[in-house]
Structures are given as structure tokens and as C-alpha cells.
Amino acid sequence: MTKEQIWDTAGQERFRAVTRSYYRGAAGALMVYDITRRSTYNHLSSWLTDTRNLTNPNTVIFLIGNKSDLESTREVTFEEAEEFAKENGLMFLEASAMTGQNVEEAFLETARKIYQNIQEGRLDLNASESGVQHRPSQPGRTTLTNEAPNAKDQCSC
Questions:
Q1: 48-80 pLDDT, tens per residue?
Q2: DSSP designation for 148
Q3: Which of 44, 97, 138, 156 is the most exposed place for a label (fewest CB within 10 A)?
Q4: Mean per-residue pLDDT for 90-112?
Q5: Bigger pLDDT: 142 or 16?
């Protein structure tokens, strides 16, 4: 079982000093920008710098372009953001909070990558700065593995 604590820092400059405290001990970070507002994309470099400076070097960072349902008002291309992600070693996808497209996938992939880092020894369960706490499994909880779900098992038909 994994339990994720999600902190929405809103990306606003006036909260920057406060949000920096949330980075400490984080095992993962979702950097979300609005594909219809270039200004949100333009802030990614400074947020990435903060994230990298204030977290474990093995922190999982996922770049997410939100509002993919608003293609007609897009200001940031998929290719541009994908290139930024590749250049900076980030996972990347576009999502829509409105339709729910890729929202669950973003959280699950982040958790899977964190789990993989634990399995490969990149995150130490005993180190407080790793952002990971270990507790025995509880019945009725979801277990994460490194394996992607079988597409056949996902079908609702």
C-alpha cells in the first residue's frame, strides 16, 4: 500500500517561501502547468530548480500539462513541453482535470516510479530525507508493483 500526501502549492510567487518547506522530504513531485496559459509554463524552470535544490536527488518529478481538453486555446505545444521534460529528465504527460483524462495515471505512475526507486535502493526507507515511510501492509489495500497493468484487464467491455 502506498499513501501519498498531496500538497497543492498553487505556483504563486507570494507562497514560494512556504512551499519550499513542502519540498523537504518529498519522494515525488508533480509540476503542473496550464497548456492554455504560457505564463504557467514559463515558471517551470524556477520551480524545477527549487525542487531539485530542496529534495533528494532521486525524487521523482512528473511534468503535467493540464487542461488538455482545451486544445483550441492551447498556448504551449505538446512537443515543446515534451522536449523540456526530456532535457530535464522528467516524466511527462498531458491531462485534463475537467474530464479526468490521465489524472489517475499521473499519480499511479509517480507512485510506481517511487516504488521502483525503493526496490533499486535509490530511496532508503530508513532515511527521513527520502520522503518514504515503511509500514506493514494492511488487508484490503492496493499493492503497487513495477509492472504496468495488462490492457485486457483494464477493458470495461
A1: 998 898 888 889 999 999 999 999 999 999 999
A2: P
A3: 156
A4: 95
A5: 16
What sign has the CA pseudo-torsion 87, 91, 94, 97?
negative
pLDDT at 142 over 50: no
| 27 in Cβ contact with 114 (< 8 Å) | yes
Q: In whole angstroms, what is the distance from residue 100 CA to residue 114 CA? A: 23
Find, among 54, 53, 34, the residue nearest to 42 by Cα: 34
The set of long-range contacts for 69-74, using a CB threshold of 8 Å and a minimum separation of 24, is 69/96, 69/98, 69/99, 69/101, 70/35, 70/36, 73/36, 74/35, 74/36
User: Which residues partner with 65 through β-bridges?
Assistant: 33, 94
* Residue ranges per structural domain of the chain: 24-120
Q: Cell 488538455 identifies what position? A: 68
Residues 6+ away with beta carbon under 8 Å from 40: 11, 33, 34
pTM, 2 dp: 0.75
46: buried, middle or exposed (CB in 10 Å: 19+, 13-18, 0-12)?
A: exposed
CB 110 within 8 A of CB 103: no
Can you read off the three cell numbers belonging to residue 99?
474530464
